[in-house]
Design goal:
The protein has 710 residues and is of the alpha/beta class. The protein has 22 helices and 23 strands. The longest helix is centred in the middle third of the chain and has 31 residues, at 324-354. The structure holds adenosine-5'-triphosphate (ATP). Residues 217-457 form the AAA+ ATPase domain.
């Protein structure tokens, strides 16, 4: 076992990294909002102008919900203009500034307290749950502007501060194991062979082994699920088995979608469960399990509803009265009602929670007041390698559970980080999701360290310095090695030949393609597809070597008006023509556009390809590699972009990014790139190019065959 980590110093360094991250986020948003006029912000999707209050009522937790719609004097259609405000966004509501006072106005906005969270965002209105009680909503024409989201950081901060201040005597055995101060309790061979009554007879052996292992673990277990290996499938069975063993579970994921996915798949098994989280952010199919919906619809809910309507009518009377004294009196009454409301609601919530053996929420949501006095036996985190370590500590500390089970794949991309503590890197640069040049610089700086993260947990990582993007999953693997992990090995997504390289290069050659998928080709799709060179070939490589397909740095004339973070990216317009022709050939053969995706690591290339292909092939999906993580398609075309005499590969050097790119397709992967440039990038890239040359259907594009006007 590696050297134990000192808990308070670990927490302190997390706190300072989180602070850097918050600063980076604040800087980015403030930069945008302070530099630009409201109309520019509105055009950029960061603000909505010319609004009026449509309604005001009381929501969950006694919060005031303000519904804002277009001012009829300005909009005749009753519809809002296109805007980028989404549920969960933090925003301010204020009187709309006139041009000249805009800056002053916005600076004062936060202090005036009309801040809130968007809870609904539709064509005709946006609803905001106000943060503070008794806010005097300004009259007249209003506007909404997006603010930096520091709510997440506040909770991460509280969690890490709690960890930092804990006395050694307060550290549970789980906490000690998570920092290597104690070894995990060994599991005997007998336990691993125990007879389990499986609910799902179709589970494969690696899934069964992982479940037996997790059931036997006393403190922590990692379930490593490479692409398409049925990680969630396995977790569902594990949850059912734990319930049979009378365990109470808190199940979390980093995103709402990751949690909803589990709720949906647990629902047919009729387990007593409740999903915490704002209904506006949940999938419709999950609503019947939502805590908030249950507090309205369960038998006990009537007493809450009564008081809610009383509060609503009081709210309405405030808006009507202009008399200061009267207003004050109503505020007083509202305050009392709100208290009563919270108590009643609290009782209903408490009852619903007590009846539930499985509680599901996002990692962030597990830190809410509802779980304050709840005890759990096991915390399960899905997509754990997509979560910051500090996020995982939210449920661990709030639940006081003695056991933790993490499922994820540390060989795909970690969570997005905006700050970087890499030496020499600027403080506000994005790594990962943003395909820009600055990110590349950071990537290059940190690559060496990233390479040190062991693939199988065999090598030990240097413990310092702690990096924000080192996930708990990563850290536990380097701390305890293979002994705490089981890997799922049968994958149900990719044709065998598509799987081969990632399996060999990243998963120790252990992946097996399930019979149902290993030979599936586009021509076998359940609808009419012609047999062509492309539809009967799982792996195609268009090699642009020779220098005829050079990359370009996007010449951004509009740099000043954009965030500097969006400024530079790479494009390769000739490569884009190959993408276009390849898509066209698949579609001509009968493959549906909806079954095809084009992915590229570079935003510049993505913009170019979108422009070129969106109208011509409606239904075709285009995305950045990072944005496509967790998804799959029948056919995927990857445009690698980089082609230069210096053999610079930028952040293609991050093998986790390429792993994501090459493991999305089911039946057809087409890679387009310059093998000469790319193979010089890293050992991994060299091996990949060599593999493609050997195993793919190789094509050499001819410039004269590519018609420029399509
Ligand atoms: N034992 C099994 N037998 C047959 N099909 C399976 C089995 N396990 C998983 N699958 C199928 O494999 C696919 C992927 O499963 P699931 O959605 O659980 O994957 P995941 O590992 O969570 O996804 P990702 O690859 O994105 O991590 C699903 O279509 C699922 O039905």
């Amino acid at each position: 076992m590696a050297k134990p980590t000192d808990i308070p110093s670990f927490a302190s360094s997390q706190l300072s990294l989180l602070d850097n991250e918050l600063q980076a986020e604040l800087q980015e948003t403030q930069l945008l909002t302070s530099l630009h006029a409201p109309t520019t912000l509105a055009r950029a999707g960061l603000a909505v102008l010319n609004l009026t209050v449509l309604s005001q009522r009381t929501g969950f937790g006694g919060k005031t919900l303000l519904e804002l719609g277009p001012d009829p004097a300005v909009s005749s259609s009753g519809e809002l203009p296109e805007h980028g405000l989404r549920v969960g966004d933090i925003c301010a509501v204020a009187e709309q500034p006139k041009g000249a006072e805009r800056k002053k106005e916005r600076e004062g906005m936060e202090k005036r307290g009309a801040e809130g969270v968007v809870t609904k965002s539709g064509k005709g209105s946006v609803t905001v749950a106000l943060d503070k009680e008794d806010v005097d909503v300004p009259g007249g024409k209003l506007w909404l502007v997006k603010l930096a989201n520091d709510v997440t950081y506040k909770r991460l901060n509280q969690t890490m501060t709690k960890l930092q201040k804990m006395q050694p005597a307060e550290h549970s055995t789980l906490t000690q194991v998570l920092f290597g101060q104690t070894s995990p309790t060994p599991i005997s061979e007998d336990e691993l062979k125990s007879d389990v009554q499986w609910t799902d007879p179709s589970l494969n052996d690696s899934q069964k082994d992982a479940i037996r292992f997790a059931l036997a673990s006393r403190e922590v277990a990692l379930i490593h699920g490479p692409p398409g290996t049925g990680k969630t499938h396995t977790l569902i069975e594990l949850i059912l088995q734990l319930l049979k063993r009378k365990q109470r579970l808190l199940v979390c994921g980093p995103s709402n979608v990751s949690v909803d996915n589990i709720v949906e798949r647990l629902a047919p098994h009729k387990v007593s469960m409740v999903r915490l989280g704002h209904p506006a952010r949940l999938l419709p199919s999950v609503l019947s399990h939502s805590m908030e919906v249950l507090t309205r619809t369960s038998d006990a809910a009537a007493i809450v509803t009564d008081i809610r309507s009383e509060m609503d009518s009081k709210q309405a009377s405030i808006r009507k009265t202009r008399n200061g004294r009267e207003r004050k009196a109503i505020y007083g009454e509202l305050k009392e009602l709100r208290k009563e409301y919270r108590q009643r609601e609290g009782r209903v919530v408490g009852d619903l929670l007590r009846e539930s053996n499985v509680v599901l929420s996002t990692l962030h949501g597990a830190g809410g007041y509802q779980l304050r006095d709840q005890r759990f036996d096991v915390v399960i985190v899905d997509e754990a390698s997509q979560a910051l370590e500090a996020q995982c500590w939210i449920p661990v500390l709030s639940s006081s559970a003695p056991r933790l089970i993490l499922a994820g794949d540390h060989l795909q991309l970690p969570p997005t980080i905006k700050s970087s503590n890499a030496k020499g890197a600027k403080s506000t640069t994005k790594t990962n999701t943003n395909s820009d040049e600055t990110a590349e610089k950071v990537s290059k700086l940190t690559l060496k360290e990233k390479e040190e993260i062991p693939d199988g947990g065999k090598k030990k990582v240097k413990q310092d310095p702690v990096r924000l993007e080192t996930t708990l999953f990563d850290r536990l693997l380097s701390l305890h090695g293979e002994t705490i992990k089981r890997m799922l090995t049968t994958q149900y997504r990719m044709h065998e030949r598509i799987m081969q390289f990632p399996s060999r290069a990243l998963y120790e050659g252990k992946l097996i393609a399930a019979d149902a998928v290993k030979e599936r080709l586009l021509k076998d799709l359940p609808y009419d597809v012609d047999e062509t060179d492309n539809t009967s070939e799982p792996l195609v490589f268009w090699d642009t070597q020779g220098g005829d397909f050079p990359e370009k740095t996007e010449d951004d004339e509009d740099k000043q008006s954009k965030s500097s973070l969006l400024a530079e990216s790479k494009v390769n317009d000739l490569e884009a023509l190959i993408v276009r022709d390849h898509v066209a050939s698949l579609i001509d053969a009968g493959v549906k556009a909806e079954d095809i995706a084009v992915v590229t690591p570079y935003n510049g290339q993505l913009a170019l390809l979108s422009q070129m292909l969106k109208d011509r092939f409606p239904g075709l999906e285009l995305g950045s590699v990072d944005g496509f993580q967790g998804r799959e398609k029948e056919a995927v075309i990857v445009s690698l972009v980089r082609s230069n005499p210096e053999h610079e590969v930028g952040f293609l050097g991050e093998k986790r990014r390429l792993n994501v790119a090459m493991t999305r397709p089911k039946r057809h992967l087409c890679v387009i790139g310059d093998s000469e440039t790319i193979s010089k990038g890293s050992k991994f890239l060299k091996a990949w190019m060599a593999f493609l040359e050997e195993n793919a259907d190789l094509r050499y594009p001819n410039l004269s065959d590519l018609s420029q006007d399509g």
